[in-house]
Every structure is written in structure tokens, then in C-alpha cells.
Amino acid sequence: MAEAFSAALGQSQFLDLFVTQLQYQDPLEPTQQGDFLAQLAQFSQVEGLEKINAKFDNLLTLGQLSDGSSLLGKEVTSKTGQTGIAREISNDDGQVLVNIGGTLVPLADISTIKFVGEQNLLPTADF
User: Fold this and answer.
1) Dist CA 66 CA 57 (whole Å)
2) Taking a C-beta distance cutoff of 8 angstroms, is the pair 83, 109 a contact?
3) Domains of the chain, residue spans
4) Nearest-5° Cα angle at 63, 59 to 64
């Protein structure tokens, strides 16, 4: 089973590879400094992309939580037909869940949103 890439694991692997290359290089034709710098630059790019992906995932989750918070107090219906007032929004390992009557439903499974409360939202005036 292959290990998942992480910045810490990647740094360790890169250093192991770097030391191995130094140990086993041909002394008559040593690896050029530019080659090592190119490898380091490539590794830095991969590490930077890993950090950007993690931050993007966090941003996406925050956006979904914000979207979910707009459902609070509204009557929602899930794709499976469960209907109730959205009482809580939570995040479970990146998945945003809506609490409908004690049942946690993924935000993506909400199919209908109904406003409950004041029916007349516009002010009326007597003429």
C-alpha cells in the first residue's frame, strides 16, 4: 500500500534520495550543482502546491459552512424526503452536515428550502 504524500514525508524522502545520490555518484563525473538545485526547486513547487491545496480545502469548507448557516431556522427537505427545521450546521472531516430533527444530512443532499416565519415580508400601507 502506497503512503499518502505529505510535506513532512516528502521532505524526508527528498533528503534520503539526495544523500543516496551523493553516496553513489560517479566520482569522475559528479552530479552538477545545477541538477541538485533543479530537483530542490521541483520539490519546493510540489510542497507549495500541497500547502495551497490544504488552504483551498479549508476555504471551500468555510464557504460550505457559510452556505449551510443560511439554512438555519428554515424548513429543509433532503433528497431522501426527510423534512424538518435546520437546527445546526456542522463539519465532519470536511463534509458539511445539516441537523434536521436530530438526523445529520449532508448539505449536498438538501433538495428544498422553505422559509418559515412571517408570511408577509413586505410592509403594507393603508391608502
Assistant:
1) 14
2) no
3) 8-23+32-114
4) 120
> Helices (H) and strands (E) in the chain — how many of each?
2, 5
| pTM for this model (two decimals) | 0.52
Q: From the CB of residue 100, how many other CB atoms can be counted at a distance below 10 Å?
A: 22
User: How far does CA 55 lie from the centroid of its chain?
Assistant: 7
Amino acid identity at 16: D
Cβ atoms of 3 and 9 closer than 8 Å? yes
Contact 96, 106 (CB under 8 A): yes
CATH number for the domain whose boundaries are 8-23+32-114? 2.30.30
Q: What is the largest CA-CA distance in the chain?
A: 100
* pLDDT in 10s for each residue of the chain, 127 residues: 445 555 566 677 877 887 888 888 888 887 777 887 887 788 788 888 888 988 888 888 888 888 888 888 899 999 998 999 999 998 888 788 999 988 999 998 999 888 876 544 445 555 4
